[in-house]
Each structure stands twice: as C-alpha cells, then as structure tokens.
Amino acid sequence: MIFGCITKFIPETNEEQNLLVIEGLITDQPEAYTIKLSWSIPVGINSGIRPLKGCKVTVQDDLGNNYLFSESAVDGLYISDKETFRGIIGRKYTMHINTNNATETHYSYESKQVEMKNVPPIDSLFYEKITINEKTPYSGPEEGCQVYLNAFDPLGKCRYYRWDFLETWEFHLPYMVTNQICWISNTSTDINIKNTSVLAEDRITRLPVKYISNETDRLSVRYRIQVNQYSMNEDEYTYWEKMRDISQDVGSLYDITPSSVQGNIFCVEDPGEQVLGFFSVSAKTSERIYIDETFRGQVQLYNKCAADTVFNGEPIPGLNSFVWVIVDNPMPPPPFKVITYDKGCADCTVRGTTTKPIFWED
Description:
The protein is mainly beta and 362 residues long.
C-alpha cells in the first residue's frame, strides 16, 4: 500500500488580522436602510462573521442634516428610521462611524461624499424556457428557465448599473402532513453590474439575471423574482468590478486578494489604515414577475424519502427522534404510513416557512 499524508498549509501574508469591514446602502425608496460593521477573517481561519457592536453610526447630507442609525437586535447591524430619513436624488451623503468603547482605540471612520444619482426604470423583466436535455428513448425532455431584463436611459446619464434580486417560491411536500406547503425566499449573491459608457446609447438588452435549472423545486408550483436596479458612479463600479473578479474569476490564492480592493471609507485618525467595504448611495427602481408555467423534467427532490411503509393504523414501536412517520393516501383504500429518516420529508419548515408572503397574491 502506498499512502501519503496531508498537512494543512497556512501561507504567510501581510494581511492585517483585524480589518474593519463596512457594508452600507441608502436609496431614494421609503425603507429602512442598513449599515453593517464587522471584522475581517484572516486567511486560514474558518469562523463566522465577527460583528462590531456598540458604535455610533450616522449619515450626513450636504445640507448638514444628520441621521442616526440605531443598533438593531442583530449584532453589528445598524438601521435608519424610515419615518425620518429618505434619500433624495441630487443630494450628497457622507457616512460617519465612531467606535466609542467598542474597540481599544476609539477611532472614527468616514466615507467620501457620494451623490445620489438617478436611475431609469427597468424597461422589462421577462423569462424564457431553456431546453436542458432533449427527449430520448429512455427519458423525457428537461427544461429550465432564464430570467432577463431590458433597461434604457434616454437621457444617457446613468452609465453604471448594478442589480440584485429577491426570489421567492412555493413548494409542496408529496405527503399529507401538517406542514405540507411552504415558501422560501433568497437574496442574490452574485455581483451583476454593467457599464454602458462605451456604448453608443445607454441601453441594456437581454441582460441575464437568474438561471433556474431543473434540479431545484423553484419551478414546481409558483416562482417570483423581484429585481432591483441601482445607479453608480465610476468609483463604485470599479469597486464592484474588482469584487466580482475575486468572487467569480479567482484562479488561485495568489490572484487579487480582498484587501487590495480599495473602497471609499477611511480612518480619520489614521488615514493609512486599511478599511474594507463601500458606502453606496443610489436611486433604486424595481420590477417583478411571477412564473406559473409548467416545466418538463423537473427533478423530484423527495423521491428517496420513504425508508419503509406500514399498511395499518397501529402505532409503530421502537421509533426514535431520528425517524418521522408520514401518513399517506388518507382516502380508501386504507391509509398506510411511510417511515422516513429525513425530517424535511415530513415538515416543510425545515427548508421554508408556512407563512405566506404578503405579496404572494399580487
């Protein structure tokens, strides 16, 4: 037998152990805005987010008005009062952070002043069926879905765009259980940006927003996607472009590292300190669509639920907490019980929620 051993390798880097990470966005919509503060995670450390609590966070406009962001129940998350603060197109905003007693050194941080630029509405949001695999003698056809958008600024002033989305879908368990119908909501994780400054007109056509394969239950009942469109200046576009390269195109450890991406935030007392993140200021427009169409060849996620069946109504002795019983076929002929070792087969709240979204009937 020939064998070897694997030794964990932690490279030596000049990366600071504790870099402040700041994520903030304000828009012109009547909503609560958030600013998130945390510490960076050094290379080789597998740990979760390290939030920074106890700071004073404010945003100031170019007229001298100050707006406080209060610390929420979520550590490191600071939220504005939507009743007293709403971004205005054309105004310029600066973020201020005072660490108070949250750190050993009571430093303060500021962002560069950022103007809120207008953004045109999304012209159209639509989807098309995608054939994944054609029908064969041994299997049926398989279909997926691609969501696109079109946008156009006739004034040609919004040359840098960014998009994110919220997707929600309804799914049903294939068994008659109490929690049979649920909904799941996810936010986008990919960085989707576009620069039209090199184009003859400020037009975006058939921009891919979301691809949905047949290996998920997103298209099994009903699917909804809301896409948000933001405006940016050139500095912010450059920042997101570099972040996209890191998250999507990195080939090895020795490509671009996150600390090399310069944001728009600096330490007042020590301008040489590296600060990660970006304070974004943008107008925002949104569009949404529902997809109710039937797609062929959808993968059945619950076809391996049943471990055994019992064809009577008697209690099943000897079951432990890792076994769930599903009652199937409640109508004649007599019902039988399905034994499963996967709680998600018997309770849809393992993945989602039974609370229907308020917008679901739009």
